[in-house]
Structure formats: C-alpha cells, structure tokens
Amino acid sequence: MKVKVYNQKKEEIEEIELLKEIFEIKLNTDLVHQVVLVQTANQRQGSAKAKTRAEVRGGGRKPWRQKGTGRARVGSIRSPIWRGGGVTFGPIGEKVFKKRIPKKMRRKALFMVLSVKVKENLLLVLDKLEIGKPKTKTMAEILNKLFLKKGSGLVVLPKINKSVILSIKNIPKVDTIQARDLNVLDLLSYKYLVMPKESIKIIKDTFLK
C-alpha cells in the first residue's frame, strides 16, 4: 500500500510504501474492544474510600442511658443509621481494577486501528515536522493546512521534540505522543493521525519483531 508524503504546507513530495504487516491488517472489532477495555480499566485509580463507623470521628460516649428514656437503645452517634455516621459496605480503597492482556493481542489491535486509519485516508505522512521556537500560532497554522479544520488529530513524534510539544500543548483537539508509546486508546480518541516518515520506522522497530 502506497501513501503520499507531504511537507508542512501539505504539498505532495513523494510516495512511500507502507508495510503490509502493520498497515494492512483485517479489522477485528471484538479484539480492539477488548484491548480498549483493558486500557481504560488500567487507568482507574481505585481510590474511592468511605469511612466505616470505626473510622468516623466522635461517638465515643453513649448518647443516653440504656433504659428508662422511652427511646431506642443507642451505643454511638456514629452508627450507620445516624446522619454523619459510618457507611455500611462502602468502598474501602482496596479494589484493584488492573487487567492483563497478552502483548501479541495488544500489538495486533494496534495494527488493526492503524490499518483503518490508512484505509479511511486519515493518516497524514510528513517528510518532517519542525518548528524553530515554540510558537502556538505558527503550529496552529501548520495544522490548519493539514487537518485541523476537519477534526481532531494525534501527532506521532519519532522522539521528544520540546518545541513541537510546547507549540501543540495549547491547541484544542490535538495531542502528541512518541511513536514507541503508540496505543489503541489514543489512536481511537482522535480522528486524524499525523506522523513524520521517521515515526513509521520507529513503529516498525518497536512493535514488529
């Protein structure tokens, strides 16, 4: 499969051939869905915590005597049935949401989503993406020519480029990621995928072994 290579002005420069082992994989929606579920589950902190009656402050003294008042017997104002009391069967902050999925399945799903991006003409390959000093306005002009007027986009960088990252940071609907950190959830979160030619080589070296 061949794709066009553009410069930063979206002028066509050349054509390159993409690896069929990465960019021509048949889509299996069940596998992609499974990988997304694992990724989202692993992002959960599991930090929800409610205090039991043993942890709520106060309630050390018996509110009133056991007999003779005509009222129900009570041992503590921090009973779960009292306002401000402890919580019965609440979250205790110890639940683990982590899930595991085989590496081969993660990679296969990643290649499937990349293949869909190419098939739907949502992949933009650049000869390079460079900017001198960090400048949001300049970067916005470049991205407007490429895709920004049509939707959101993920810029895949071959390595950390502080000028590019800082220039994109304040642009809505756009984010950056290193090619070696590419994952299914980030790919599905943005419409367009923009990457320099060098990023394709990094993807091959990282994921295709």
Concise synopsis of the structure shown:
With 209 residues, this protein is α/β, with parallel strands linked by helices. Helix content is 34%, strand content 14%.
Key terms:
single chain; Ribosomal Protein L4, Chain: A; 6-stranded mixed β-sheet; 7 helices; elongated
Write the layout of secondary structure elements.
Layout: E1 2-6, E2 12-17, H1 20-23, H2 29-42, H3 103-119, E3 123-126, H4 136-148, E4 153-157, H5 162-168, E5 174-178, H6 184-189, E6 192-196, H7 197-207
Parallel strand pairs: 1-3, 3-6, 4-5, 4-6
Antiparallel strand pairs: 1-2
Helix pairs in contact: 4-5
Number of helices: 7
- Let me know the CATH homologous superfamily of the largest domain: Ribosomal protein L4/L1
What's the architecture of the largest domain in CATH terms?
3-Layer(aba) Sandwich
Shape: elongated
Extended strand count: 6
| H/E series | EEHHHEHEHEHEH
- Beta-strand content: 5-15%
> Spans with pLDDT under 50 lasting ≥5 residues?
none
Report the mean per-residue pLDDT as an integer. Answer: 92
Largest sheet: 6 strands, mixed
Structural class of the helices, strands and pairings?
alpha/beta
Regarding quaternary structure, how should these chains be classified? single chain
Our Rg estimate from Cα atoms comes to: 27 Å
Describe this structure in words.
This protein is of the alpha/beta class and 209 residues long. The chain has 2 domains: 148 residues, 3-Layer(aba) Sandwich (Ribosomal Protein L4, Chain: A); 51 residues, no CATH class. Helices cover 34% and strands 14% of the residues. A 6-stranded mixed beta sheet has the order 2-1-3-6-4-5. Helix 5 links the parallel strand 4 and strand 5. Helix 4 packs across helix 5. The longest helix has 17 residues. It is elongated.
